[in-house]
Amino acid sequence: MSRAFSHHGINIKQANCRAYDSGRRAINTFQTTVRSLKQLSSLMATLRDITGVLAVERVFSRAD
């Protein structure tokens, strides 16, 4: 997944991984800053194409 962020020129500010289902599944949360909605949409499409990724969603938006 980190390669997808790098490919789209997006730095990961913070990452969190929580395992569940006896370690067979995980929820990964990434905090980033993107330049545009287009860049975010492209990243999300790339992440969805990764084998094993079941869902990708934007959790929240925050302007600094």
Features:
alpha+beta, two-stranded antiparallel sheet, globular, 64 residues
Give a brief rundown of this model.
By secondary structure, the chain is of the alpha+beta class. It has helices at 2-7, 37-48; strands at 12-20, 25-32.
What does this structure look like?
The chain is an alpha+beta fold and 64 residues long. 28% of the residues lie in helices and 27% in strands. It is built from two helices and two strands, in the order αββα. The chain has helices at 2-7, 37-48; strands at 12-20, 25-32. It has a two-stranded antiparallel sheet. The chain starts with a helix and ends in a 16-residue tail after the last helix.
For the sheet with most strands, the description reads: 2 strands, antiparallel
Which radius of gyration do the C-alpha atoms yield? 12 Å
Helix content class: 25-40%
- Output the strand order for the largest sheet: 1-2
**Cα distance, first to last residue?**
25 Å
Mean pLDDT: 93
Computed structural class: alpha+beta
Q: Please indicate the percent range of residues in DSSP E strands (runs of 2 or more).
A: 25-35%
Helix and strand string, N-terminal first? HEEH
Shape: globular
* Beta strands, count: 2
Uncertain runs are: none
Q: Please count the helical segments.
A: 2
